[in-house]
TrEMBL record:
<keyword id="KW-0489">Methyltransferase</keyword>
<comment type="similarity">
    <text>Belongs to the methyltransferase superfamily. UbiG/COQ3 family.</text>
</comment>
<feature type="binding site">
    <location>
        <position position="136"/>
    </location>
    <ligand>
        <name>S-adenosyl-L-methionine</name>
    </ligand>
</feature>
<comment type="pathway">
    <text>Cofactor biosynthesis; ubiquinone biosynthesis.</text>
</comment>
<keyword id="KW-0831">Ubiquinone biosynthesis</keyword>
<comment type="function">
    <text>O-methyltransferase that catalyzes the 2 O-methylation steps in the ubiquinone biosynthetic pathway.</text>
</comment>
<dbReference type="InterPro" id="IPR010233">
    <property type="entry name" value="UbiG_MeTrfase"/>
</dbReference>
<feature type="binding site">
    <location>
        <position position="93"/>
    </location>
    <ligand>
        <name>S-adenosyl-L-methionine</name>
    </ligand>
</feature>
<feature type="binding site">
    <location>
        <position position="72"/>
    </location>
    <ligand>
        <name>S-adenosyl-L-methionine</name>
    </ligand>
</feature>
<dbReference type="GO" id="GO:0032259">
    <property type="term" value="P:methylation"/>
</dbReference>
<dbReference type="InterPro" id="IPR029063">
    <property type="entry name" value="SAM-dependent_MTases_sf"/>
</dbReference>
<protein>
    <recommendedName>
        <fullName>Ubiquinone biosynthesis O-methyltransferase</fullName>
        <ecNumber>2.1.1.222</ecNumber>
        <ecNumber>2.1.1.64</ecNumber>
    </recommendedName>
</protein>
<dbReference type="GO" id="GO:0010420">
    <property type="term" value="F:polyprenyldihydroxybenzoate methyltransferase activity"/>
</dbReference>
<keyword id="KW-0808">Transferase</keyword>
<dbReference type="GO" id="GO:0061542">
    <property type="term" value="F:3-demethylubiquinol 3-O-methyltransferase activity"/>
</dbReference>
<keyword id="KW-0949">S-adenosyl-L-methionine</keyword>
<feature type="binding site">
    <location>
        <position position="41"/>
    </location>
    <ligand>
        <name>S-adenosyl-L-methionine</name>
    </ligand>
</feature>
């Protein structure tokens, strides 16, 4: 009898983002919200990584001894800043088109990044290990959250860190992140997010703990229309980030 192997890949989601691949590096294009969001998440990552590893953040390449995975890397919007900070970077995405776009842009930028069209499960099965696993705006697009988070957690070295950024499953998020951002403001194409696939912080934290990780911090990220920027916040009702470590 045929058996169906579990996978975290949602083929429809991969196809959706692959169709938009050419837009990744256009700051005014379909990924404009990520370009706006990037400075906030980069500052948070740098602050927490340097604090955790006792690194002087003012050194020219503070991440030079760190191996970092950006899972669901898309076109490489986080991989390139990590490489500029000196890290050895692996960027993985299930969409081959996204990876090709990322490779071309990295070459144009003079950066060496190990881009791979693969899955979290395949990397974990191969025994890959990283000091930092970046899991940003991906978990709300996977088919099996438990399987996906388990694979990602497996790749965090003892003493390493993982950052997870996603959208809460609340009515406020439905109104702002889906209806407001996709249907009113047109920041994102309609259908980018499905409400039922959003993940609540307690669900995410439970998955992390179940995978042997210890949750260090949870913060909200809020958009300010006055400054047209994203900032850290205590409000986790819409966008939030969770930091965890493997003891």
């Amino acid at each position: 009898m045929a058996t169906t192997e579990r996978t975290s890949i949602d083929a429809a989601e991969v196809e959706r983002f692959s169709r938009m691949a050419a837009e990744w590096w256009n700051p005014q294009g379909k990924f404009r919200p990520l370009h706006k969001f990037n400075p906030t998440r980069l500052a948070y990552i740098k602050e927490k990584v340097c604090g955790h590893y006792g690194i002087d953040p003012h050194t020219p390449m503070p991440f030079s001894r760190l191996r970092i995975l950006d899972i669901g890397c898309g076109g490489g919007l986080l991989c390139e800043p990590m490489a500029r900070l000196g890290a050895t970077v692996v960027g993985a995405d299930a969409g081959e088109t996204n990876i090709e776009v990322a490779k071309i842009h990295a070459a144009q930028s003079g950066l060496v990044i190990d881009y791979r069209a693969t899955t979290a499960e395949a990397l974990a099965e191969a025994g890959e290990q990283f000091d930092i696993v970046l899991n940003m705006e991906v978990v709300e697009h996977v088919a099996d959250v438990e399987l996906y988070m388990s694979a990602c957690a497996q790749m965090v070295k003892p003493g390493g860190l993982t950052f997870v950024a996603t959208i809460n499953r609340t009515l406020k998020a439905l109104g702002l992140a889906i209806f407001g951002a996709e249907y009113v403001l047109r920041w994102l194409p309609r259908g980018t997010h499905q409400y039922e696939k959003l993940v609540r912080p307690e669900e995410l934290e439970a998955a992390l703990r179940q995978s042997g990780l210890e949750v260090v911090e949870k913060i909200g990220v809020s958009y300010s229309p006055l400054s047209d920027s994203w900032n850290r916040s205590r409000d986790t009702d819409v966008n939030y980030m969770v930091l965890a470590t493997r003891p």
